[in-house]
Each structure stands twice: as C-alpha cells, then as structure tokens.
Amino acid sequence: MDYVTIFKALGDETRLRILNLFLQSDERICVCEMVDALNLPQYTISKQLNIFRSADLIKSGRQGTWVYNQLNQEPTGFLSGLFELLKKQLSGKYSEDIEQLNKRLALREKGVCIVGVIPKEELEEAYRQ
Predict the structure, then answer these.
(1) Which residues of 82-116 are buried (b: 16+ CB within 10 A; e: fewer)?
(2) Where along the chain do its domains lie?
(3) In the sheet that 66-71 helps form, which strands lie side by side, from edge to edge?
(4) N or C: less crowded end of the chain, CB within 10 Å?
(5) Exposed, middle or buried: residue 10 (CB in 10 Å: 0-12, 13-18, 19+)?
(6) Which residues of the chain fall short of a pLDDT of 50?
(7) Can you tell me the distance from the alpha carbon of 25 to that of 84, in angstroms, rounded to the nearest whole number?
(8) What confidence score (pLDDT) does residue 8 get?
C-alpha cells in the first residue's frame, strides 16, 4: 500500500466530494449518477475516479451497461480506519451532494441505474415525480 499515493488522491476538493458520496451512501455508484449529483462533467468525474483507482481506494465492476464504483473495503487495516475517520469528518460538509445523490439513486429500478446522464432540467422534473 502506497500511503503517499493515497494521501495525494485525497488532496483535491472534487475528489473529496466524490469520496464523500461513497462514504455517506454505502452504495455502488455509476459515473452518470455522480455527474448528476455533483453537477460536474463526466470527464471530470472519470478522471478523478482513475486517480482513486490508481491509489486503490475504489474498485469498479460492470453490471450490464453500467460500470459501478465502490470503496475498496479491505476487512481490516489502514483503509478501513481512514474511511471511518473521513466519513465522520465529512458527514455534514457536502450535504447538498448527498441530497442530490439520494434523489438520483431513487430513480434506479431494482437497484440498477437505468437512465444515464440526465440534462439538468429533465433531472429536476424527474425528482418532482
């Protein structure tokens, strides 16, 4: 485990916002759900996820059309302690991101993302329904 790479990966606010989605939701999340929750371009999200993958902080897996990302949850050790600490410290910091993610996750069918990235106007309409 490369501690320097891990801490470098955490040294960016966008990456902290993304990590917080994983920490607070305990869900596997696809890129399109993060794009809608954080209101950031897909390229930005994908680039940051690659940095997390390089630091071995997240794992990715394909399910049908979608690639889902989740925290690398080793049973014990450094990452478990780090994630626990960050979850506590970030719990209220990015609450709007979590609120938007929860709305976006509610659009899933049988726990699976089915819609891809949604234009902002359509997304607001979907949330109202």
Answers:
(1) ebeebbeebeeebeebbebbebbbebeeeeebeee
(2) 3-128
(3) 29-30, 66-71, 58-63
(4) C
(5) middle
(6) none
(7) 13
(8) 97
- Angle at the Cα of 18 (from 78 to 116), degrees rounded to 5? 130
Question: Residue with structure tokens 């991101």?
Answer: 97
Instruction: Spell out the long-range contacts of 87-92 with Cβ–Cβ below 8 A and sequence spacing 24 or more.
Output: 87/23, 87/24, 90/16, 90/19, 90/20, 90/23, 90/24, 91/24
Q: How far apart are CA 72 and CA 122, in angstroms?
A: 33
Per-residue model confidence as pLDDT tens digits over 33-59 = 999 999 999 999 999 999 999 999 999
Query: CATH for 3-128, among 3.30.460.10, 1.25.40.20, 3.20.20.140, 1.10.10.10?
Result: 1.10.10.10
CA distances from 70 to 34, 48, 56, 62, 76 (A): 12, 13, 11, 12, 17
Instruction: Select from 8, 59, 74 the least CA-distant residue to 29.
Output: 59
Residues for the chain: how many in total? 129
Cα separation, 19 vs 13, in Å, equals: 10
The DSSP call for residue 107 is: T
